[in-house]
Amino acid sequence: MAGVPGSSTAASFTTAMSLTKMAKVPERFVLPPSHRPLIYNHLHNYHSTTSPLPVIDLVPIHDPSLRSRVIEDICNACKEFGFFQVINHGVSPSLMKDVVQACLEFFNLPIEEKLHLVSEDVNKPVRYGTSLNHVKDTIHFWRDFLKHYSNPLSKWIHSWPSNPPSYKEKMGDYAKATHLLHIELLEAIFESLGLDPKYMRREIEDGSQVMAVNCYPACPEPEKALGMPPHSDYGCITILLQTCEGLEVKLDKEDKWVPVPMIEGALLVHLGDHMEILSNGVYKSVVHRVVVNAETERLSIASLHSLALEKYIGPAAELVNEQNPKAYKESSFKDFLDHISENDIMQQRFIDTLKIGNP
């Protein structure tokens, strides 16, 4: 257990990775029975789980004669799930492999080499931590994370970890690739809503990109803990790379959790709260959580995309009329940070505070 330099509110800081050899998870990680996940005993059982979740091939999107079919598939996925996987997305397999390796090397560093990045301040542009808020959380979550701003790259890359030596180069290349992919995906999503594909193009190109790298260590009692609690992401979309199964999405119509299958080379796309706002509720942000397992660690790299920190987003004027009145208040990325710094996301989702007519 290592102390946090300069911390006045945390006497000590313990990573989840340091607890994997314990016979039981510490009490602070144990969820109430009603919040505990259904756990598959072995990873291969995950593979046998059938899932209706959509997978979209992006190759035809560049063919004018085939693009409309892809747009229709994206529309259906956004309406039904708020989530889909993409294949043939243009991010090279070697780049994905390299960035995963660089991230694993970071998490495997001695804790002393990471402590200078520990902070309780959610506004910090580079932050290493565990759980959600290791000081305020009454229940902790079984993960360690590294988060940092990434767009524009020239502004932020100097503040990223210098160890391992390959981290800045590999993550920088991956951040650039996912930034370009998110622009392409938003064009398609806007088109599926009947908007101009270039809608808010300048704001999107100049928007915020946060890379959130999550390490979920093997857990001695996975049936009692979660890597992340049920939540939705704040931004427009999130592009996620995962090394193995563990992510589950909530299907509201059936009120059940569905495990997201591992597809080699695929990237996962989540709609966030700001897309729900922009679409005036036509599309909904997807609620998801992370389960852990006793056999292996899981790494995920989330590229979270929103408008600039203090740039407000509201329902698109084209999607508001007498039949579909404005349903959400405007919001910014900074509003979200203020919300999570003061509230327990297990008690109230950020999007619920923005719905017009809510108390």
From TrEMBL:
Signal peptide feature range: none
Domain Fe2OG dioxygenase: 206-307
Family matches, as InterPro entries: DIOX_N, IPNS-like_FE2OG_OXY, IPNS-like_sf, Oxoglu/Fe-dep_dioxygenase_dom, Plant_2OG-oxidoreductases
Keyword Magnesium attributed: no
Compartment annotation: Cytoplasm; Nucleus
Top-level taxon in the UniProt lineage: Eukaryota
Keywords of this entry: Cytoplasm, Iron, Metal-binding, Nucleus, Oxidoreductase
Entry GO MF terms: metal ion binding; oxidoreductase activity
Function field: Involved in the regulation of shoot development and salicylic acid (SA) homeostasis.
Family (UniProt): Belongs to the iron/ascorbate-dependent oxidoreductase family.
The name this protein goes by in its record: Fe2OG dioxygenase domain-containing protein
Record lineage: Eukaryota, Viridiplantae, Streptophyta, Embryophyta, Tracheophyta
